């Protein structure tokens, strides 16, 4: 089975930090997957490279068998790739305290 999405040899560095070095990921149709690892392992960086939030320093991204580069989340979403970031802020106008105030529970 051919991967729908392939990231190969991905490198990404920030000043003083090599976040990704030769990272790879294959995503197949009809399969559930998880990207897991310790804090600082590069999971979020990999997803941001995938969706074009960060530009990769090296490596290739193949979508449906074709080399591609996404210029940001909009272009990756238009291609059919979307992710839910772990830092997702659903209600940006609320503070941490506001998010923890007792709300009526709906059943």
Automatic annotation (TrEMBL):
This protein's source sits in the domain of life called: Bacteria
In this chain the ABC transporter domain maps to: 21-97
Going by the record, the broad EC class of this enzyme is hydrolase
Recorded hits in InterPro entries, A to Z, give:
ABC_carbohydrate_import_ATPase (IPR050107), ABC_transporter-like_ATP-bd (IPR003439), P-loop_NTPase (IPR027417)
Query: Could you tell me the EC number(s) of this protein?
Result: 3.6.3.17
Q: Where are the transmembrane segments?
A: none
A molecular function (GO) held by this record is: ATP binding
Could you list this entry's UniProt keywords, alphabetically sorted. Answer: ATP-binding, Cell membrane, Hydrolase, Membrane, Nucleotide-binding, Translocase, Transport
Give start-end ranges for the coiled-coil region(s): none
- This chain belongs to the protein called Ribose ABC transport system
* Provenance organism: Klebsiella pneumoniae
């Amino acid at each position: 089975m051919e991967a729908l999405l392939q990231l190969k040899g991905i490198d990404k560095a920030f000043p003083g930090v090599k976040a990704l070095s030769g990272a790879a990921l294959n995503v197949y149709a009809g399969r559930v997957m998880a990207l897991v690892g310790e804090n600082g392992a590069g999971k979020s960086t990999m997803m941001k490279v995938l969706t074009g939030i960060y530009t990769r320093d090296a490596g290739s991204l193949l979508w449906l068998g074709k080399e591609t580069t996404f210029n940001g989340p909009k272009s990756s979403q238009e291609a059919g790739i979307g992710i839910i970031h772990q830092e997702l802020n659903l209600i940006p106008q609320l503070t941490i305290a506001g998010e923890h105030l007792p709300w009526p529970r709906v059943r």
